[in-house]
């Protein structure tokens, strides 16, 4: 990246994960001598250097590194670049996304109107953060005919079944004719309002502030030149406005989630007249009590921008937009139904199949699924085992090279951070595969706290992974995977072991193949560099077609994993749930080493309060996560996951219940509506509901 510094600006380069070299070239100006340790990558996690520009300077910074082979552990990782502006240089606008066609700055407590041509892009930027910006858009052609047709929030929410659209399949704001006016291309905030009016004079008058400026009055002035009649209150898309509808039927608001430079990027679906405000509200938290500026940029339709939401590892982390995996060129040809799953565009189901067909393919034949959204971390160094022994509940001293173990990571109070698998690649080399980026942050903090010489390097973007699952998965992969004599062949590979090989022969793309999965069937996962994703997919696809291989999406996967009793973060466990309550108490080993949460888990094991159980539901009513469980009037638990099982022909669920009511055969009721007015009978049963002895995954 290139950065421009003014005189007195301070540039800080931080290596958050350690061992990452920095490339730094001064194109003009002067930064003085450059530190060798940062340039060579001989750095501990969190190492940084700060340089001050005595004169205006332009600097190019890079984080060099080669592609990581799947059996290696040297991923190039990000450098964090921070610029502290000096004096008048403070708070510049973020760099443009592309070539700017037009732009306007909207001062705090004002509004502006502007025209946008069909296909052009509109970027609404929160300059200082925590500032609302109401947005209006009208069909320009209809305005020319004297008819006001603009975005209709009620129509939009009705058509989408959501409070507001976002990047992806359901991305458009509609007018009252049910025609799209704008499409949401990017959103780095993810919290907006479509219920309330733009603020009005009446609101301020009722609060005791007569004469206070309002967005509605500002819109009236800005839109008057376009012949648009004034209104007391404008129904608007209230960007960055943080509202929520509570169970008490009251609309609440708080400070916006937006940070400095956050934005929403729209695409105009027709010629538009738009208006944007910088909300003047300074009497409540809507703008964090301090109205600031909004900036609008227009980009020409000839440019292309990726679609995505912003994802942050921690609240203060640099955002990353939704990205695609190395298999996207193949999966996107087979479906348009892609969802943002943990920051990756992932198929929910496939157009030519559908979830039920995909489900049966997994149970009867073989399926292939892109699971690249799983997070991967390379844990290396002389204290790598010591770090992971402290961080999770299994005894890694018993883990052999080439073996995989499923485990839990807990806080001190016993609540779970995440679950995941650990691969042992060497005596001091481990790979952690989990669901959440935060686990990497937490592991680094733990290493620093205990002064352990271990590095935790993010490798998610260096390792794509395909799950090949189903009774014929071994048959398919035997035709595809070549392994050297020192490695186990696909035929020899045992459950929770991995092998290192190549696709097609000794010169093919490098892969790691593990006998793991999330379906309850015999299955494998293939790990490769994203640059080899298409080649790996094509080889498996060609070998699998004679055996009825089908692609699998997230919807079908959910049915499979609920049947198999496989837990899912945010549903079956969270930071208030220990491994015993999550149904994975088997992951808590009796090991001598102290680890985070050990004392709390011993206490919780001895005094269980809740237990994860299986449920069989009477009838065919829809059951979902969060439905309450009752005996009589009292709530005694909650449904964590549910699915209609095609194989069993009934609705099944996982539920966390009070330990007193967890005995098999117990009859309970699922509360619907308010939990009291409607009840659905259910019975506590053994889980997994499907193949409880796990004979199929061990086949």
Task: Describe this protein's structure.
With 699 residues, the protein is α+β, with helices and mostly antiparallel strands. Helix content is 15%, strand content 32%. It is built from 13 helices and 40 strands. Strands 7, 9, 11, 12, 16, 18, 19 and 20 form an eight-stranded mixed sheet that branches. The protein has a seven-stranded mixed sheet with strand order 30-31-32-33-29-23-34. The protein is globular. The two termini are 51 Å apart.
Largest sheet: 8 strands, mixed
Structural class: alpha+beta
How many angstroms does the end-to-end distance come to?
A: 51 Å
Helicity range: 10-25%
The tally of beta strands, per DSSP, is 40
Radius of gyration: 28 Å
The protein's oligomeric status is: single chain
Number of helices: 13
**Low-confidence runs:** none
Task: Supply the key terms.
single chain; 699 residues; 8-stranded mixed beta sheet; 7-stranded mixed beta sheet
Write the layout of secondary structure elements.
Layout: E1 2-5, E2 10-15, E3 23-28, H1 36-40, E4 47-52, E5 57-62, E6 80-84, E7 100-106, E8 111-116, E9 121-126, E10 133-139, H2 140-144, H3 153-160, E11 172-174, E12 180-187, H4 201-206, H5 215-223, E13 237-239, E14 242-245, E15 251-254, E16 263-268, E17 272-277, E18 294-299, E19 308-311, E20 320-321, H6 328-334, E21 338-341, E22 344-347, H7 355-364, E23 367-370, E24 375-380, H8 384-391, E25 404-410, E26 416-426, E27 429-434, H9 438-449, E28 455-458, E29 464-469, H10 473-478, E30 481-482, E31 498-503, E32 510-514, E33 523-528, H11 533-544, E34 550-551, H12 554-563, H13 598-606, E35 610-617, E36 628-631, E37 634-645, E38 650-658, E39 667-672, E40 678-685
Parallel strand pairs: 12-19, 23-34
Antiparallel strand pairs: 1-5, 2-4, 2-6, 3-5, 7-18, 8-17, 9-16, 9-18, 10-13, 10-17, 11-12, 12-16, 14-15, 19-20, 21-22, 23-29, 24-27, 24-28, 25-26, 26-27, 29-33, 30-31, 31-32, 32-33, 35-38, 35-40, 36-37, 36-39, 37-38, 39-40
């Amino acid at each position: 990246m290139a950065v421009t510094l003014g005189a007195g600006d301070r540039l800080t380069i931080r290596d958050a994960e350690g061992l990452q070299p920095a490339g730094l070239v001064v194109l003009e100006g002067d930064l003085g001598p450059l530190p060798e340790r940062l340039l060579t990558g001989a750095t501990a996690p969190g190492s940084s250097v700060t340089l001050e520009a005595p004169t205006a300077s332009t600097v190019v910074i890079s984080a060099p590194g080669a592609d990581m082979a799947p059996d290696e552990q040297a991923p190039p990782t990000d450098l964090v670049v921070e610029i502290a502006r000096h004096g008048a240089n403070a708070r510049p606008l973020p760099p443009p996304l592309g070539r700017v066609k037009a732009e306007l700055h909207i001062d705090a407590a004002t509004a502006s109107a502007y025209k946008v041509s069909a296909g052009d892009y509109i970027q609404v930027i929160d300059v200082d953060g925590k500032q609302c910006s109401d947005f209006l858009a009208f069909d320009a052609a209809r305005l020319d005919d004297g008819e006001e047709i603009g975005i209709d929030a009620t129509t939009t929410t009705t058509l989408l079944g959501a409070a507001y659209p976002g990047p992806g399949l359901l991305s458009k704001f509609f007018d009252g004719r049910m025609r799209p006016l704008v499409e949401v291309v990017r959103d780095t905030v993810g919290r907006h309002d479509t219920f309330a009016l733009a603020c009005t004079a009446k609101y301020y008058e009722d609060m005791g502030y007569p004469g206070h400026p309002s967005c509605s009055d500002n819109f009236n002035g800005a839109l008057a030149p376009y012949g648009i009649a004034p209104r007391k209150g404008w129904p608007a898309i209230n960007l960055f406005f943080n509202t929520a509808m509570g169970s008490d039927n009251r609309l609440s608001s708080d400070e916006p989630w937006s940070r400095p430079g956050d934005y929403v990027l729209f695409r105009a679906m027709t010629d538009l007249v738009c208006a944007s405000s910088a909300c003047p509200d300074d009497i409540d938290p809507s703008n964090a009590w301090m109205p600031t500026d909004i900036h609008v940029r227009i980009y020409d339709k000839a440019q292309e921008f990726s679609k995505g939401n912003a994802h942050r590892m921690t609240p203060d982390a640099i955002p990353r937009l939704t990205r695609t995996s190395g298999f996207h060129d193949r999966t996107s040809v087979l479906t348009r139904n892609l969802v943002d799953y943990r920051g990756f565009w992932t198929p929910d189901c496939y157009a030519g199949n559908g979830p039920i067909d995909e489900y049966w393919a997994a149970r009867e034949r073989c399926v292939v699924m892109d699971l690249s959204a799983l997070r991967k971390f390379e844990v290396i160094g002389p204290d790598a085992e010591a770090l992971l022994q402290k961080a999770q509940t299994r005894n890694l001293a018993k883990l052999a090279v080439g073996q995989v173990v499923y485990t839990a990571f807990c806080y001190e109070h016993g609540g779970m951070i995440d679950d995941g698998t650990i691969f042992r690649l060497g005596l001091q080399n481990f790979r952690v595969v989990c669901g959440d980026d935060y686990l990497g942050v937490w592991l680094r903090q733990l290493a620093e706290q205990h002064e352990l010489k271990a590095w935790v390097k993010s490798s998610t973007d260096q390792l794509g992974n395909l799950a090949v699952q189903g009774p014929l998965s071994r048959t398919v992969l035997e035709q595809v995977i070549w392994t050297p004599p020192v490695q186990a062949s696909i035929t020899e590979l045992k459950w929770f072991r991995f092998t290192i090989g190549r696709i097609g022969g000794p010169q093919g793309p490098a892969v790691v193949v593990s006998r793991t999965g999330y379906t309850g069937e015999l299955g494998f996962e293939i790990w490769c560099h994203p640059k080899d994703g298409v080649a790996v997919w094509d080889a498996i696809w060609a070998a699998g077609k004679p055996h009825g291989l089908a692609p699998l999406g997230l919807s079908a996967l959910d049915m499979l994993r609920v049947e198999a009793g496989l837990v899912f973060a945010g549903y079956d466990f969270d930071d208030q749930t220990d491994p015993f309550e999550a149904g994975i108490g088997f992951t808590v080993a009796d090991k001598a080493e102290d680890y985070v949460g050990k004392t709390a888990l011993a206490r919780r094991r001895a005094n269980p309060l809740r237990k994860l159980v299986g449920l069989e539901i009477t009838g065919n009513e829809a059951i979902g996560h969060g439905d309450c469980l009752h005996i009589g009037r009292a709530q005694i638990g909650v449904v964590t996951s549910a699915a209609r099982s095609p194989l069993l022909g009934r609705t099944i669920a996982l539920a966390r219940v009070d330990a007193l009511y967890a005995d098999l055969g117990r009859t309970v009721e699922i509360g619907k509506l308010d939990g009291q007015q409607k009840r659905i009978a259910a019975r506590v049963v053994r889980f997994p509901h499907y193949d409880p002895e796990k004979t199929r995954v061990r086949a």
